[in-house]
């Protein structure tokens, strides 16, 4: 607004990215009576199958958005998961019901992420104060000297700029918001790519005794097997020298599944995705009134199912802070600095550390280290105290209890507190 001071109290929060994390941020702001504009380049809500696990701490947070009941109606509750070895079979079994005294959700809820996007999109489409701009691409973000920012967009009507009191970058690993801010994205990329393939065949019949979630170690080709309502999903590494076309070819996929469990007649494949896997964290999650959440702020190996979950935690944390800032209850600098500091710590100390450890445990090639790792997992699983601590961390309850979500700056740490339900 050249020649005029922008009235930030009249400007909405602009969310860039309409995936599950962006949708959660929009739903949270709407519940807090904050006007929001969500901008998404795709013409329709995203249908990516990639993430499918919702942990206990995340379900607790989503319970305030009016979707958890429907998620349970459509999803699959999985209290038990296995750590296995491709040669030796079951190594350790973990049962989340050990956490039943701490959370109403002592399990993993398996539900492909596009269903949460669908649920929230339908809710938001009828919510006053929410504007959904699909088919609109963000080309840049310019923080304003007096606060807020301008979001440059291109849509069917051409190029324009949106005035924003705050901008939330939820636009994925290749984030335009992050690049516009010049924020580094440090870390590394695994040499192997990961392939996800889904089949409608019930693998538990072909592999009696497996759980609905299985991490399978092997020095040559580790494996991840997971059940959802629609299908069984397998994830395995693809060597650098194999082309994408060959990795996703029907004949290749049939060989892979036959190596998991022989089946005359083959396997119907209903989805296949090949992607690169990174361990990266943005150098900062905040520049002025612009913040980064989800994959725009941190990306990690999928081993543990915490990437989507931690992104949702980012969204819930920062939206609570923005609501306090707009109502005058919170100081903008303190709130956003606290968000950036705490969520960066969680990304490094929990998300990055745990997913790297989980991935290394599956692909370890040194036999002595493999055996030591297996022994450690057995010892944890057979000790109720250690098993409980392990699952509190795996379910993200530990990080949420330790740091809280959206607590005011200076608020006493909720560390190890058990919430009342």
Describe this structure in words.
By secondary structure, the chain is α+β, with helices and mostly antiparallel strands. It contains 13 helices and 20 strands. The strands form four sheets. The chain has an eight-stranded mixed β-sheet. The protein has a six-stranded mixed β-sheet with strand order 8-2-1-12-19-18. The protein has a three-stranded antiparallel β-sheet with strand order 3-7-4. Helix 1 runs parallel beside helix 4 and helix 1 runs parallel beside helix 9. The longest helix has 32 residues. It is globular and about 65 Å long. The C terminus is likely disordered.
DSSP helix count? 13
Q: Quick one: overall form?
A: globular
Q: Using DSSP, what is the number of strands? A: 20
N-to-C span: 48 Å
Largest sheet: number of strands, sense, barrel closure:
8 strands, mixed
Low-confidence segments, given as residue ranges, are 416-421
Mean pLDDT: 93
Strand order of the largest sheet: 6-5-14-15-16-13-17-20
What fraction of residues sit in β-strands?
25-35%
């Amino acid at each position: 607004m050249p020649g005029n001071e922008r009235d930030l109290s009249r400007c909405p929060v602009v969310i860039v990215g309409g995936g599950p994390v962006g949708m959660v941020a929009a739903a949270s702001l709407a519940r807090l009576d904050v006007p929001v504009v969500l901008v998404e380049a795709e013409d329709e809500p995203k249908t990516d199958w990639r993430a499918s696990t919702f942990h206990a701490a995340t379900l607790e947070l989503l319970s305030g958005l009016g979707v958890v009941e429907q998620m349970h109606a459509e999803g699959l509750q999985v209290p038990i998961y296995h750590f296995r070895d491709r040669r030796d079979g079951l190594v350790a079994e973990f049962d989340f019901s050990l956490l039943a005294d701490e959370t109403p959700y002592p399990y993993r809820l398996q539900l492909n992420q596009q269903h949460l996007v669908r649920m929230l999109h339908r809710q938001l489409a009828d919510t006053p104060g929410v504007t959904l701009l699909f088919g609109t691409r963000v080309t840049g973000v310019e923080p304003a000297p007096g606060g807020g920012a301008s979001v440059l967009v291109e849509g069917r009507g051409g190029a324009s700029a949106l005035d924003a009191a705050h901008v939330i970058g939820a636009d994925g690993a290749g984030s335009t918001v992050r690049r516009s801010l010049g924020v580094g994205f440090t870390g590394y990329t695994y040499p192997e790519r990961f392939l996800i393939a889904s089949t409608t065949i019930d693998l538990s019949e072909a592999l009696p005794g497996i759980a609905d979630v299985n991490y399978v170690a092997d020095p040559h080709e580790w494996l991840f097997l997971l059940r959802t309502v629609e299908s069984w999903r397998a994830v395995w590494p693809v060597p650098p020298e194999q082309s994408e076309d060959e990795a996703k070819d029907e004949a290749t996929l049939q060989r892979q599944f036959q190596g998991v469990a022989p089946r005359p007649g083959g396997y119907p494949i209903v989805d296949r995705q090949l992607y690169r896997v990174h361990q990266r964290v943005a150098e900062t999650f905040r520049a002025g009134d612009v913040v980064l959440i989800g994959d725009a702020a941190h990306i990690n190996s999928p081993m543990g199912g915490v990437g989507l979950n931690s992104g949702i935690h980012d969204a819930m944390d920062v939206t609570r802070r923005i609501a306090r800032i707009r109502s005058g209850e919170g100081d903008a600098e303190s709130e956003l600095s606290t968000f950036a500091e705490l969520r960066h710590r969680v990304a490094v100390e929990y998300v990055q550390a745990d997913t790297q450890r989980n991935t290394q445990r599956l692909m370890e090639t040194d036999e002595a280290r493999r055996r030591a790792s297996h022994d450690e997992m057995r010892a944890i699983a057979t000790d109720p105290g250690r098993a409980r601590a392990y699952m509190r961390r795996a379910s993200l309850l530990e990080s949420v209890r330790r740091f809280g979500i959206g607590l005011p700056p200076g608020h006493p740490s909720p560390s190890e507190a058990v919430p009342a339900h």
